[in-house]
Amino acid sequence: MNRSITINKLSEQMGLTSRTLRHWESEGLFTSERDASSGWRVYDENALMRIRITSILRRLDIPLKDIQTVLANQSLSHLSLVVKKKISGLQMKKAEIARFQEQLEQVLHYLQTQEEDSMVRMDQLLTDTEDIYMHQTSGTSTLKIVNLPAMRMAYHIAVSNSPEEEAMAPVLEWTKAANVLGTARFFGGNMKPFPTEAGNPYGYGMCVSIPDGVTVPEHLKEMVLPGGLYAVLESSDDIPGSWSVLMKALKEDGFYQSDRSRLCLEEHIRNEKPEGSGNPFHLVLMEPVKAVR
Fold first, then answer.
1. How far apart are alpha carbons 117 and 113 in whole angstroms?
2. pLDDT tens by residue, 259-281
3. Nearest by Cα to 231 from 92, 52, 28, 126
């Protein structure tokens, strides 16, 4: 039996306005039909399920574009990706609020140490507090924090004395053949066995982001990169030296620390130069972090 309900009854039962329902439908989240006798919009069981899911996720402040992904794939794994993305965004906001609060507390402490005076004196005080603010923000200017979204990835791991190119080659070759190079993001990182002394084989993994609906070939493996907050630094030709610079800046920062539950990454940004003209990639180093306060 295919039961349906009119828009006015649905609005009353779920506490949603008819305007909200029409907007969600215009975004492609579900479809309705018109009752032949009354002209009311009516919703079948499939539409009702989609409306309930949308309503719950909107109460969690999940954007409509992410809800569209959940409804299109109808899997718990995609729902988990959306929730993780939201959590990462909240963590970043929390860190920004903590940074702003500390700046305000420093300004307040400074103002409370000054004697009450005229408006002329206030002008000088505000100039001084601006200096405090600039000092605070410039102290972390070398540490850039980004929020990496969760992504579906295809990957390959190679183990040798120089495994980076071996790990990259099959991934890049398939990406070009599958015609997904234009939107792809490439990430690499050391894998077990980790590098030790020079000359010993070590592991390196290379992965590429892939859109939904694309099938990963048998010679590659699939995973979900959880994303989250990362401290990033564009690498020089001295990659180990660049990592040292990044980790030193992170150690001196009071708002973030390394998150050892996730692997560090090296994003390979494609060079716009034609093939055969210089290095086809440059590296951005990415250390997973979490807010300290």
1. 12
2. 988 989 999 887 655 454 455 67
3. 92
